[in-house]
Amino acid sequence: xxxxxxxxLSFYKGLGQTFLVLIAISSFxxxxxxxxxxxYESTTPNGALIHYVDQLEQKQYxxxxxxxxxVYAQYNEKDTYIEYLKSFYGNLDLSKATFEKQNYTxxxxxxxxxxxxxxxxxxxxxxxxxxxxxWNARTLTKVHSYKIDSPTTDLQMVVNDNHIGSDRIVARDIxxxxxxxxxxxxxxxxxxxxxxxxxxxxxxxxxxNNEYILVKDAILDQYYAGPVxxxxxxxxxxxxxxxxxxxxxxxxxxxxxxxxxRKLLYTKTxxxxxxxxxxxxxxSAHDSxxxxxxxxxxxxxxxxxxxxxxxxxxYIVYVGERSQTYSSTYQLxxxxxNGKWLLSNLAIAEAN
Length: 352
Description:
Elements: H1 2-43, H2 45-57, H3 61-71, H4 78-89, E1 98-101, E2 109-116, E3 119-129, E4 134-140, E5 144-150, E6 157-159, E7 162-164, E8 169-175, E9 190-199, E10 205-207, E11 212-216, E12 222-227, H5 231-252, H6 258-262, H7 270-276, E13 288-301, E14 306-319, E15 322-337, E16 340-348
Parallel strand pairs: 5-12
Antiparallel strand pairs: 1-2, 2-3, 3-4, 5-9, 6-7, 6-10, 8-9, 11-12, 13-14, 14-15, 15-16
């Protein structure tokens, strides 16, 4: 009887040891599987997409922001970026998310539409970190991207407290965006172009080079950097801007002739063609006009042969004892032709 009990005890002891060994082996292989899954998630595009959605579902926004800085140029402030992700994905059922690869991909970047219930929700960009053989994902905000035209390749800027420099240069010695309406682009001042993208809201951009200033285009998501303008030259630019703006207004209301306006214009532009064919006979008859509250601002040089500036003013038209005030803001672009400054473009902008 005792011998039988010893055999049973030995059997159960061996069974327990075998069970523990099996648990240890299972844990080992589960660990390997977990490591393998993590490796898969980081080293394949599909895995990176799955990992990104998991983070969004678990609301790991801090981790998403920190990871976005590792391989991407992240110029958004942390709180702004996280609030955007919360508002964008907060009410979506991400468990239904599927992905459709887009054609505009490369060995470094791939783009996928995130689709939920048959509708495209967002575009996800994944980028490969070749050094670590790892793919990283981010949401393309489709909010703002900016170009910065600069006379130098050494422009140092801070965008939302994040430094940018020559690493954001996308082109050198190209015609400035400000002169895109010239019929012959060889006439345009040449610039170095910087590019910043995936911004949420308008950025705060500061130039670190003391000898340069930065001005935003009144219409486009575009900035222009130029040297600090001396007082005398700036006064000349301001006077010219006022003269051309008032002459243009007076032509529109038939208080000036096209011949006099034409003397101030560069003729080889789309703007010239448009103003030449403009019919100003529609404007109501009036007795007199007056300009008030003239303000010139955001003047910046573009190379040696170009500058741009804006002006706001009130244009008052009198008919007898009655008057009508037209508040206007223009952005004017000038090109030096044979030593003379001529208007190459005029755009109606929002009031400053």
